[in-house]
Amino acid sequence: LQDGASCTQAGLLLSSSGKDPKISFQKGCDLKDPSACFSLGLIASKENKGEEARSLWKTACDLGMATACAVLGDVYENGATGVQDIGLAQQFFQQGCSLGEPISCTRLGLLLPPAEGLSWLEKGCSQQEASGCYNAGSLYLTGEGIPADPTKAAPLFEQACTLGNPEGCLALAELYRKGIGVKRSKAKYKALIKQACVEGAT
């Protein structure tokens, strides 16, 4: 009795030693191991076989691999394998989000109109996805498509900053500098500017 995960591991061992892993990955995929299907998709993508890659990633996604759903969302959004389809991108980002991939929640939120996307951005943020926090905070600050509420923006920027997002640090610093949604604080402004610099903001 063959086990899909074992076939996948065999394929990874072959790949690491410079040997062709396709047969092992195919066996793993046939036995419904999503990692094997995903790995075959990566190989197909490198060989410029876009349709085959997308099919294999969809199999992996449908088998419950959140990363595969996120990759499919990305390739359909950006047309990376020759086909751009925003509707399919949204579908696969939603599937990835439902499987616990927080970046998929954020990416879906950014594709939707603000009033619809906000809840997905906040869902990504709740799962510690920094850009979800930053983008949700930006919507609350600007009031783009939703009622503006700087008091809700501030904690979202703070969480983004804490999670290592330099733009979140800069945005929160500006709130402290201007006293918008928070009490004005020159000390906090300076500290956040310094933190943003440390975290790579330009």
Q: Any overview of this molecule?
A:
- The longest helix has 13 residues, at 4-16.
- The chain is 74% helix and 0% strand.
- It is elongated, with a radius of gyration of 21 Å.
- The mean pLDDT is 94.
- The chain is built from twelve helices and no strands.
- The protein is mainly α and 202 residues long.
- It has helices spanning 4-16, 22-30, 34-46, 50-62, 66-78, 86-98, 102-111, 114-126, 130-142, 150-162, 166-178, 186-198.
- Helix 11 (166-178) packs antiparallel against helix 12 (186-198).
Name the features.
74% helix, 202 residues, mainly alpha
> Into which percent range does the helicity of residues fall?
over 70%
Order of helices and strands: HHHHHHHHHHHH
Q: Helix segment count?
A: 12
Task: Report the structural category.
Answer: mainly alpha
Global Rg: 21 Å
Query: What value does the average pLDDT take?
Result: 94
Query: Which regions contain 5 or more consecutive residues with pLDDT less than 50?
Result: none
N-end to C-end Cα span: 56 Å
Shape: elongated
What is the number of beta strands? Answer: 0
Percentage beta strand: under 5%
Sheet having the most strands: none
